[in-house]
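Revision sheet: structure tokens.
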Amino acid sequence: MISVIRIDDRLLHGQVALLWTQTYSIHTVVIVNDKVVNDEFLKMTLGLAKPIGVELKIISVADGIAYMREQIETTRRVMVIINNLLDAKRIFDELDLPSLNFGNLRERADSARYAPAISLTSEDIEICKYLLDKGVELEIRRTPDESKTLIKKLLNK
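Predicted:
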């Protein structure tokens, strides 16, 4: 089962490695990104952040969609991490999934801050609106024990 899909431009780090995997009893963390899958140094670095007893997969978006499709009906608890909304759109266009957790999207030159640790470009906002129209819950929580902040309230949607 896909327990959590998280967008976090830091990918795998302490909060994810410890808090999210423990709270949701995650068996496998899957980093889905076309650039990271081809970067051996970054893959090695991310592997160092992996919690003991949790499997780590780093795969392309296309392979990630196929993997998630296989895992939806299993009892294995999977956490998927992406680092941008374009990849989120590709995933949610192919799979009927209920929600997307926002953890961190750093400020960029063309972005505006919508919440602590969440900055969105105009393209990001359009993708958020698109996903909301599809019925996807977009929620911000940096840690699993935080209360959800809904993106639709921030966008007045």
